[in-house]
Design a protein that fits this description.
Elements (H helix, E strand, L loop, with lengths): L4 H15 L7 E3 L7 E8 L2 E8 L7 E7 L10 H22 L5
Antiparallel strand pairs: 1-2, 2-3, 3-4
């Protein structure tokens, strides 16, 4: 919620497209956690923001992580971030199963 309004608008548009079965032009597969996890990158005033979302589930789009890119190592996400995303994806899976049963895409 602390992202600049322009970034929230761009990421929100991408998530809206995903909810209705589409794919935003800036959405691309994330290279970290396997298929079904997409990343939207938004640049604003020299800063880069990223939001990861999953389309693995039939009834919901989950956003396991959204953050301002601060890594000094270029484009690669820090290992602690990768582990956080993996934990949150597991939580999303458990939440989806509790709400909708085991069926997924």
């Amino acid at each position: 919620m602390e992202f600049p309004e322009a970034v929230k608008d761009e990421i929100g548009t991408a998530l809206s497209a995903a909810q209705f079965g589409g794919k935003h032009p800036k959405a691309k597969p994330w290279k970290g956690e396997g298929p079904g996890l997409l990343e939207v990158v938004a640049d604003h005033r020299g800063d880069t923001y990223r939001a990861l979302y999953t389309v693995k589930f039939e009834h919901a789009v989950y956003v396991p992580h959204a953050f301002q890119k601060k890594s000094p190592k270029g484009r690669k996400t820090a290992q602690s971030g990768v582990e956080l995303i993996a934990r949150r994806l597991k939580m999303a899976s458990e939440d989806h199963e509790a709400r909708y049963g085991k069926r997924s895409k």
